[in-house]
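Q: I have 101 residues here and want to know how they pack in 3D. Can you give me a structure?
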Amino acid sequence: MAAPTTAQDRDARAFRITAYVEAVSYLVLLVFVAIYRVFDGPDLIRVPGMVHGIIALVFLVMALRVREPQGWDWKETLLVLLASAVPFGGFWAGRHVKERP
């Protein structure tokens, strides 16, 4: 894959990476929550929860930034944002964005 040439392409690629990282951080957080609930152990979810929260905020900002260049209406934008609240939804959102030729 060639390096992105325009700012829109760079933003699209940055959004895709952010979406994938957000999805992975969500899954990691869910694993920590399950371990915490099953073993009634120490509060292991504080740090992964904070990290995921920061990544989710970056995802939100990036989604709003690529919204117009991607040609998303508000319905499609809302769908992308809601996808981040569903496990594996970030992977869908990352595939949903496209780089312009």
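Q: Anything worth noting?
A: The chain is about 75% helix and 0% strand. The first helix runs from residue 7 to 39.
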